[in-house]
Amino acid sequence: MKEIIGFGIAGNFALHLEQAGEADDFALVKTDDEYAPKGIFPFYVNGHDSFLSRYCIDNNILHLPKDINLNVQMEPEIALRCLLEYENNKVLNIKPIKFCAFNDASVRNDTTATKISQKKNFSTGSKGFGNEIDIDKFSIGGVCDNYSLVSFLQNKDEFIRYGECAKLSGYSYFYQKLLEWIKDKLNTQQDYAVLENLSNILKNANYPKEMLITIGATRYEEAGKNRYLKSGDICYVVAFDHTKFDLDTITNAIKNGSKLPNDVSLLRQEVR
Fold first, then answer.
1. How would DSSP label each residue in 52-117?
2. Which InterPro entries is this protein grouped with (predicted)?
3. CA distance 58 to 51
4. % of residues, the chain, pLDDT over 70
5. Three-state DSSP class for 180?
6. pLDDT tens across 101-117, in order?
């Protein structure tokens, strides 16, 4: 995984940015479509001459920032592992091959951050992903039609549903519309406001052949809106086939530590 490039999408699920207190960060970013995501940020770029070169994925431990005054919130998402093809130093084609549950944990109160990426790669365990599920086709009629995403937080005193249970079809941009938008942004997004020039990042990374891209955090439940992570918490992000399991079954399985089948993508991170 250390050779793959890591990107994330901001604002691809209605009202998440408002809940996260980040809507103002994107006030200067204009989109042609009011429902379009706001942009793409890097969270891991191997060999980059900045904090972005720090490998920040740990699928077991979420390491909080060294600065104890920084508030970190879970961001439950779906991540796509994609193959990238280039032509004349431009992204020509994006092929999703796997998807998984992902925690794109983010710092909320870093007043020194000028780019969204500075709130993302804050430790060697800023991110984590569950077991990957093969994508038969990334279009209507494919495996993703049947999946939903939900998240939980547990410690010795509480067990809460952190993010809403949402069907993947609830993303503002999905399937081919999403891929076309990603390709356009990878080729044209400039260094502006909280966003960065992505074509320069791809060039400096020697045009990687694979990309892990998180496609946007879902909305929070009331209990998760202002619940920041602390040592001792356990984060769960779960992508499950809602034609096979209902939410109560998944909730009880997580709460009781029951084993789930391989076609459920489960991320479990202990917070330290």
1. GGS--B-SSEEPPPSSTT--EE--EEEEEEEEEEEETTEEEEEEEEEEEEEE--EES--TT--SGG
2. DUF5718
3. 16
4. 93
5. helix
6. 999 999 999 999 999 99
Taking only Cα atoms into account, the Rg of the chain, rounded to an integer number of angstroms, comes to 17
pLDDT at residue 16, rounded to an integer: 46
User: Could you give the 3-state DSSP secondary structure of residue 188?
Assistant: helix
Distances (CA, A) of 218 to 79, 92, 100, 102, 104: 12, 29, 14, 11, 11
CA distance 107 to 72: 4
Distance in angstroms (rounded) separating the CA atoms of residues 247 and 221: 14
Instruction: Express each pLDDT in 52-100 by its tens digit.
Output: 999 999 999 999 999 999 999 999 999 999 999 999 999 999 999 999 9
Q: Is the pTM of this model over 0.90?
A: yes
Q: Are strands 265-271 and 61-62 parallel, antiparallel or unpaired?
A: parallel
Which is nearest to 103 in space by CA: 66, 72, 134, 133? 72
CATH 3.30.720.10 fits 5-271, yes or no: no
Domain ranges of the chain: 5-271
CB 132 within 8 A of CB 81: yes
**What is the distance between the alpha carbons of residues 270 and 123, in angstroms, rounded to a whole number?**
14
